[in-house]
Amino acid sequence: MKTLRTEVAVIGAGTAGMTGYRAAKAGGKRTLLIESNVYGTTCARVGCMPSKLLISAADAAHTLHAASGFGVHAGEVRIDGKAVMARVRSERDRFVGFVVESVEGYPAEDKIHGHARFLSPTRLQIDDHTVVEAERFVIATGSTPIVPDEWRAAGPRVITSDEVFYWDDLPESVAVAGTGVIGLELGQALHRLGVRVTIFGRGGSVAQISDPDLLDVARRAMTDELDVRFQTKVVKVEQQGEGLLVTSEDADGNLRSEQFAYLLSAIGRRPNVHKLGLEHTGLERDHHGIPVYDKQTMQCGDSAIFIAGDANDERPQLPEAADHGRIAGDNAARFPDVKPGLRRTPLAITFTEPQIVTMGASFAELCVTHTGCFAIGRVSFENQGRSRVMLQNKGMLRVYAEYHSGRFLGAEMIGPRAENIGHLLAWAVQARLTVGEMLDMPFYHPVVEEGVRTALRDLAVQLEKPPAHDCPCVDCTPAP
Q: Could you tell me which residue ranges the FAD/NAD(P)-binding domain spans (predicted)?
């Protein structure tokens, strides 16, 4: 067993870990990057990039089917599943290659391979070959998809999104458990590529939406196209021949058993912190076993340990992981002179059709932080001009602002071009614009963004009608 000494040890070489490593090095500290698996971020290997490749193929197929609505009639549509998956894997490998090439450019003496486990607040053991002694640490170990043990017992046909992107061909059928971002994105994409798909949701949630009025719209939009069964849980999974027998139970207790080639578990992800020996660090941990940390500094308590990315279970998104890693690495380098880093306005996008986006403070958050102190504006896209022109006239935008100050707080949306609109509105939140200032901005015609103006105009009207009671939070806007 050899011993290595360094100033900063970064555990995990994903997006947060790589960014943390570079930040600590930029801070002038000797830094060691530890990875137990293959190099290549979750986003590049099995996450955002390969999923968008599959979604793009699905969009191409859907465009051909939808063309008749414009009076344009294509010939017979043929989906070559092997060709679809070959392109997904090829482009995915290209993206992964860029990440691996970046890591390979780091000095060899800065990298070590193996599983890290804390022996004390200042020592790690890497597998059975190395002990690392360090002054400061960054935990950036990522997360893993959740698969209940009773499902996994049914065999290799119970999969996660990780396995989807290693398929050689598209299957005949897939059951999807979960109506979150991953379940809806992959479920709709596979459906549009000719796969028989059923999506089971234990409750009534749709991706990251919390606004109840928007949830109603979103559920209708999803069930218009997909076999989505809300308030229905998977209660039993059995191997049957080369496939699976999936038994579900609806809200009335009715059981239904159906055959599928695969069951995709998309019920969430678990931070990879439970095999790190955190009990040897002295850190306070929450009921999930995650170290309690400061969201502005990423510091765990007052220790020299920082946590970043999916490992801290805050916002499991690549941009957030990069920001976390930068803050954690910078503060690890400057410890004990720890300082708050830049936390950007929350922005989350689900690439279904219609697209789903939330930005700034959500409806659920405002019900806690701004009870009785925020107004709501809305617009439906059913009759919005440009949306009807494109035959994408589904969805709704709900926008929120603070009484008295008129400051724009956030929005939730399902509708066309939401990925673009979400960015514009997130910038408005971070710039701390008022609704009046936003309405002074230019709007072209005809564009989907005119719907934003309609929603803001409605919001401006609602702001003129504050509640009768005295509102104590005159300016308690969430920090940008």
A: 7-322
Q: What is the Cα–Cα distance from 474 to 463, expressed in whole angstroms?
A: 13
Is residue 143 annotated as involved in ligand binding? yes
Domains and CATH numbers, the chain: 2-145+270-334 (3.50.50.60), 149-267 (3.50.50.60), 347-463 (3.30.390.30)
Contact 435, 463 (CB under 8 A): yes
Cα 95 off chain centre by: 19
- Tens of pLDDT, residues 65-107: 999 999 999 889 999 999 999 999 999 888 888 888 888 889 9
The confidence score (pLDDT) of residue 42 equals 67
Q: Where are the alpha helices (DSSP H) in 249-311?
A: none
3-state secondary structure of 260: strand
CB count within 10 Å of CB 442 equals 6
Alpha helices in 180-228 (DSSP H): 181-192, 212-225
Active site amino acids = 445
DSSP states of 26-82 as a string?
Answer: HTT--EEEEESS-SS-HHHHHSHHHHHHHHHHHHHHHHHHHGGGGT---------HH
At residue 106, the 3 state secondary structure works out as coil
Asked if residues 474 and 404 have their Cβ atoms less than 8 Å apart, the reply is yes
List own/partner pairs for 423-426 with CB under 8 A and 24 or more apart: 423/347, 424/449, 424/452, 425/359, 425/360, 425/399, 425/452, 426/344, 426/345, 426/346, 426/347, 426/359, 426/360
% of the chain beyond a pLDDT of 70 = 96
| pLDDT tens string 395-442 | 999 999 999 999 999 999 999 999 999 999 999 999 999 999 999 999
According to the annotation, is 281 in a ligand binding site?
no
Hey, what amino acid is at 108? A
DSSP 341: -
Cα dihedral angle (279, 297, 21, 17), rounded to 10 degrees? 60
Bridge partners of 398, per DSSP, are 378, 412
Cα separation, 37 vs 289, in Å, equals 22
Structure tokens at 266: 């998309």
Q: Annotated binding residue at 295?
A: no
Q: Is the distance from CB of 307 to CB of 291 less than 8 angstroms?
A: yes
Hey, how many other C-beta atoms are within 10 angstroms of the C-beta on 72?
A: 9
The encoded tokens of residue 417 equal: 């071009």
Edge-first strand listing for the sheet containing 374-380: 347-350, 355-360, 408-415, 396-402, 374-380
Confirm or deny that 451 is annotated as ligand binding.
no
- Measure the CA–CA gap between 328 and 309, rounded to whole angstroms: 10
Average pLDDT, the chain: 94
Bridging pattern class, strands 2-11 and 396-402 = unpaired
